[in-house]
Design a protein that fits this description.
Chain lengths: 330, 304
């Protein structure tokens, strides 16, 4: 319902820029009703899925990690550095080490703000936010500087990865093995949250840090653990981007996947299983942005408008249901 | 243009935005939507200037557009008590999206821009005259705004009300203050200032419309707000310090230093902010600066 309203409320905007809204909606529907559109939505959904699953964990304990974007960039950086270090090794060794290092670097990039918050009460919203820009600039430094492809006509990108650094993909599409990693992570994090002791501790801490303290829960350990896994998953998203889709590291590998992931986690109510379809939907919005750009000459930013409107309507709808609940109670 | 004059120009949009965000946060509302409000302000100012040629109207409408976006955040985070982080992010995404979407026809256009004017006698002063008093009206207005808002916040009754609402809303409420009204006013003021900051970008600093031209300035505003310890006076210092980093980076590049790795210079504002955050987390410093106690927490009347 909120989804439909979010879409429809964009209609006057299309009029404003002189585009027939019906044509625009045709383009958007075309994405979700065609095979090509759907497979591409899945492809774009993979990094969103991984980063967003990673966010479900810290958000559950009220740790507001806004840094998935930076953790994703650090993962992409670490994965690329393995390609430089082990260019000749067999695919399973190279890919394995790219995934491991991508996870570790994304995780460590999440650990620093986690440590600052847990030990010194430094506001994590701001530190994770700042770390995004540092990570993006770090990758920019590499692709504009030491890692720049000498045969790349001066463009800020590394040389193309060799085939052994490329994740397996489904022929005819751009869907790559990152999807399997995403689905496994969703299941793993779901079980972790629902069944493990840590999952229970997360929920208690999220409800009240004071109660958690009385229950003997180690806040520092829990925060570090959660942010390492969460950051690591965002790092895997970055690894999947460079190894599965872009096939090199370059300037601007992400159009804000890490930020959209926050919205997705929120819309999925922090349920990792629900993250999967919502990510694919948001992947579709990105594809729709491309389609509107090519088909109707609109700005790619259209997909951001959809994202923003949908989120606002969902938050609004939540309130309506809340009020209805209080009414029926009385 | 001299390095220091450039510093002041680069710092001005940051100062405008920061003064607004300080009020929002002092009243207890974190607004992560600054980047979106600035982008919207930049576009609306440029479009108005393009179609009407009226700079005054352009600035006014830019401020209104910022305020409109911030009113969504106010409604969601104050009345509806939605999560402030998610709501603020939605504002940023919506502002960036809308400005890119509506601004497509504006790319590559040229619109009337705001000219600088010297303040007669003061501009004759050595050094300071050229840096501070040969600028445009925005620069003077932003410094004035910082001074006035510092005075209001710390030396007047309404300012005390804002701070008490941000520190302990339940107490403020019991003393007869209208918590919701005060928070609304502060968040809307933040939107007005962010809109003005955007107008500065597209009318003076880079007199063009480019999608995403705010380039993270809105996030630096969030950082500066903490860096300045929620004081409009320290915000002047902080804004020019950060502005100086940008100006210095351009200058060094022009003479060939730092062309190898300008990214490290660009990291400085973010790293210094993290350092400032760590510093302000130390309890004694925290108490002296006065971090708003209820920052980011929605207020439920009749609870707690």
């Amino acid at each position: 319902m909120a989804l439909v309203l979010g879409f429809l409320s964009a209609a006057p905007l299309f009029f404003a820029v002189g585009v027939n809204p019906i044509l625009a909606y045709q383009q958007v529907l075309g994405v979700f009703l065609s095979v090509d559109g759907l497979t591409e939505s899945l492809t774009r959904g993979i990094p969103l899925m991984l980063a967003s699953i990673g966010l479900c964990l810290p958000f559950k304990m009220n740790f507001w990690n806004i840094g998935a974007e930076g953790q994703l960039f650090m993962g992409a950086f670490a994965a690329t550095s393995m390609v430089f270090l082990l260019p000749e090794s067999p695919a399973f060794i190279l890919l394995g080490s790219m995934m491991t290092m991508g996870f570790i670097f994304g995780g460590v990039w999440g650990l620093i703000p986690a440590y600052l918050k847990a030990r010194l009460e430094v506001n994590e919203v701001l530190t994770t936010l700042m770390f995004n820009f540092v990570a993006i600039l770090w990758v920019d430094y590499l692709v504009y500087g030491p890692w720049r492809d000498p045969e790349g006509f001066g463009f800020p990108l590394t040389p193309m990865f060799p085939l052994n650094a490329r994740l397996p993909w489904i022929p005819g599409t751009r869907i790559h093995a990152g999807l399997i990693v995403g689905l496994i992570s969703a299941a793993f994090v779901y079980i972790f949250l629902a069944r493990s002791r840590w999952g229970h501790e997360l929920k208690v801490t999220g409800e009240s840090r004071l109660a958690a303290k009385y229950a003997g829960i180690d806040y520092v350990k829990l925060t570090l653990l959660v942010m390492f896994i969460g950051g690591g998953l965002a790092g895997l998203a970055g690894m999947g981007l460079v190894s599965g889709i872009i096939l090199r590291l370059r300037h601007g590998i992400s159009p804000g996947y890490g930020f959209s992931a926050i919205i997705i986690a929120w819309l999925a109510r922090l349920n990792p299983l629900a993250v999967v379809p919502v990510s694919i939907l948001f992947g579709g919005l990105l594809v729709a942005g491309d389609a509107l750009q090519i088909g109707l000459g609109l700005a790619f930013a259209t997909s951001l408008v959809f994202q923003g409107l949908i989120l606002l309507f969902v938050v609004g709808a939540e309130v309506l249901t809340r009020y209805r609940m209080t009414l029926s109670l009385e | 243009m001299s390095l220091l004059a450039h510093t002041v120009q680069a710092g001005t949009p940051l100062l405008l935005g920061t003064v607004g965000e300080i009020y929002a946060e002092r009243s207890g509302v974190l607004n992560l939507g600054v980047e979106g409000m600035m982008a919207m302000g930049a576009l609306i100012a440029f479009m108005t200037s393009f179609y009407t040629g009226n700079i005054g109207l352009a600035i006014a409408l830019a401020m209104v557009s910022g305020a409109l976006l911030s009113s969504i955040h106010a409604l969601l985070s104050i009345s509806i008590r939605a999560n402030q982080i998610v709501s603020g992010l939605a504002i940023t995404i919506l502002g960036l999206g809308l400005s890119g979407f509506l601004g497509k026809p504006m790319i590559g256009m040229i619109a009337p821009r705001l000219a600088s004017f010297s303040i007669p006698i003061l501009a004759e002063m050595p050094i300071v005259g050229r840096i501070l008093f040969s600028q445009d009206a925005f620069v003077y207005a932003s410094i004035l705004a910082a001074l006035v808002s510092w005075f209001v916040l710390f030396k007047t009754r309404p300012g005390l009300n804002v701070r008490s609402v941000g520190e302990n809303p339940a107490m403020a409420d019991s003393l007869g203050l209208d918590v919701y009204l005060i928070r609304y006013v502060c968040v809307l003021f933040g939107g007005l200032m962010a809109g003005a900051a955007g107008a500065y970008l597209s009318l003076v600093y880079t007199p063009l419309w480019i999608e995403g031209m705010t380039a993270g300035a809105g996030w630096i505003v969030i950082a500066l707000t903490i860096f300045a310890g929620w004081s409009p006076l320290r915000a002047v210092l902080g804004a020019y310090l950060f502005g100086g980093v940008f100006a210095l980076q351009f200058r060094l590049q022009a003479i060939g230093i730092g062309t190898e790795a300008p990214q490290f210079l660009l990291m400085l504002p973010y790293l210094t902010t993290v350092a400032a955050l760590v510093l302000t987390s130390i309890e004694t410093v925290r108490r002296r600066i006065g971090v708003p106690g209820a920052l980011g927490l929605p207020y439920f009347r009749g609870e707690s």
